């Protein structure tokens, strides 16, 4: 069974640009979660999508947005990039809505210069 | 103050030692507690899952929850070099629904020396 996949592996952008990160969940999983992992801060919850709808978002500004497609894959968009957006962005998926057993992808390392 | 506090380490111990990893939290409403393990360049994976207070054992791993002290622990017996990873605690309140989200510790980097 293929795991959660994320692309790209690395992304380098300059301040003010937009970044698009992609995630494909495990087959059959309907919930997708996005997290930001900055050095020393642990995982910060960004967004949760289930069945194509945004179910919850963390304490991040509106320039962090995303969507979930009919095939349950997901996209995270970060507009007007700031230096402090540099982090590892992790995507996770689960079978059920709001499940504690989340399966993570390897992440996308975003560097903002 | 963060809702969940976890010492980032690194914690370096010799192979075969008993390892104790800990998290403290401030929100008494947390009921579900998890430990995830994250190897370098990988995403986290669920290691242990407990509900409310008490102990749970799985092989060399024991998870302990003390709700009165708002303190959770993960013990690793007979530690191996392959246990070298970052260990993250996560927790949440009882209710599911649209407010569901996990609250995470910063992670403790563990190094097991051969």
Low-confidence stretches of chain B: none
Query: What is the β-strand count of chain A?
Result: 11
Which structural class do you get from the secondary structure elements of chain A?
Answer: mainly beta
| Relative strand content of chain A | over 45%
Radius of gyration of chain B: 14 Å
Helix content class of chain B: under 10%
Termini separation of chain B (Å)? 37 Å
Task: Summarize the structure in words.
Chain A has 113 residues and is mainly beta. In chain A, 0% of the residues lie in helices and 53% in strands. Chain A has no helices and 11 strands. In chain A, the strands form 2 sheets. In chain A, strands 2, 4, 5, 6, 9, 10 and 11 form a 7-stranded mixed sheet that branches. Chain A has a 4-stranded antiparallel sheet with strand order 1-3-8-7, with no helix packed on it. Chain A starts with a strand and ends with a strand. By secondary structure, chain B is mostly beta strands. Chain B has no helices and 11 strands. In chain B, the strands form 2 sheets. In chain B, strands 2, 4, 5, 9, 10 and 11 form a 6-stranded mixed sheet that branches. The mean pLDDT of chain B is 92. Chains A and B meet through β5 and β10 of A and β5, β9 and β10 of B.
Kindly summarize this structure in a few lines.
The complex is a heterodimer of chains A (113) and B (114). By secondary structure, chain A is mostly beta strands. Chain A contains no helices and eleven strands.
List keywords for this structure.
A: 113 residues; mainly beta; seven-stranded mixed β-sheet; B: mainly beta; 0% helix; globular
What is this structure's SSE topology?
The complex is a heterodimer of chains A (113) and B (114).
Chain A lengths: L4 E3 L2 E4 L5 E6 L6 E8 L3 E9 L2 E5 L6 E5 L5 E5 L8 E8 L8 E2 L3 E5 L1
Parallel strand pairs in A: 2-11
Antiparallel strand pairs in A: 1-3, 3-8, 4-5, 4-9, 5-6, 7-8, 9-10, 9-11
Chain B lengths: L3 E2 L5 E4 L4 E7 L4 E9 L6 E7 L2 E5 L2 E6 L4 E6 L8 E9 L9 E2 L3 E6 L1
Parallel strand pairs in B: 2-11
Antiparallel strand pairs in B: 1-3, 3-8, 4-5, 4-9, 6-7, 7-8, 9-10, 9-11
């Amino acid at each position: 069974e293929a795991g959660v996949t994320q692309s790209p592996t690395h992304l380098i952008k300059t301040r003010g640009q937009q970044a698009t990160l992609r995630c494909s969940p495990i087959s059959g999983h309907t919930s997708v979660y996005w997290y930001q992992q900055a050095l020393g801060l642990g995982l910060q919850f960004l967004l949760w999508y289930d069945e194509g709808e945004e179910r919850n978002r963390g304490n991040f500004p509106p320039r962090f947005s995303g969507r979930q497609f009919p095939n349950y894959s997901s996209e995270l968009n970060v507009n007007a990039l700031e230096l402090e957006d540099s982090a590892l962005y992790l995507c996770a998926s689960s079978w059920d809505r709001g499940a504690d057993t989340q399966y993570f992808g390897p992440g996308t390392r975003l560097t903002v210069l | 103050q963060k809702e969940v506090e976890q010492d980032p380490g690194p914690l370096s111990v010799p192979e075969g030692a008993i390892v104790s990893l800990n998290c403290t939290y401030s929100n008494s409403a947390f009921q579900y507690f998890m430990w995830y393990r994250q190897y370098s360049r990988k995403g986290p994976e669920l290691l242990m899952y407990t509900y409310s207070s008490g102990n749970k054992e799985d092989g060399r791993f024991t998870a302990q929850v003390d709700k009165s002290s708002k303190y959770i622990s993960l013990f690793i017996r007979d530690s191996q070099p392959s246990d070298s990873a970052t260990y993250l605690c996560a927790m949440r309140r009882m209710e599911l629904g649209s407010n569901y989200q996990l609250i995470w510790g910063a992670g403790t980097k563990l190094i097991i020396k051969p």
